[in-house]
Automatic annotation (TrEMBL):
Any Pfam family matching the protein: Flavin_Reduct
Domain of life: Bacteria
Organism: Thalassococcus lentus
Name of the molecule in the record: Flavin reductase family protein
Residue intervals of the Flavin reductase like domain: 18-173
Amino acid sequence: MFYRPEDGHGLPHNPFNAIVTPRPIGWISTRGSDGHDNLAPYSFFNAVAYFPPQVMFSSTSTKPDRGDTKDTVAQVRESGVFCVNIVEYAMRDAMNRTSGPWDSTVDEFADAGIEKAQCDTIDCARVAAAPANLECKLTQIVQLPGDANFAVFGEVTGVHMRDDCLKDGIFDVLSFNPLSRMGYRDYTVVRDKFSLTRPGE
């Protein structure tokens, strides 16, 4: 099968997300200028640079009470900071709860029963029990083609790692099993790993 996206795919559901898979989930926490905390998952998320460490996430839809975007991007615009919370398999239901289309005044931490902690380098809450948290200061927001597509880039200014996830100096993903997004309503979980040596190493 071949299709041009501009012409449509003719399938019951858009296959694009199922092709680009699995994708890490950035569970993004933000705090608005009014003091309200927000927490929402984004599967268009990744690390993009080592030195200085940088990450990005993209938001692709709107909410009636936020105009051209959603709560997360709106609050990043206000504060200039955000925190990436890594999602483990054990927190899948809590993460899913925070994906709802809640009013901008709703604190998703409280709504989903998630304990929060204060970040160290930025004025933002983080998921206290997450395997890792990346505190970030905004570097740029890029509007992509499409009315509601915004890519948000940030420099990591602080890193939290849960002590039980460190094994012999290695951040061991098998100790918490990262959750990843696939297509449709599907997710997957990392339960095994293997290593490859690059040519010349």
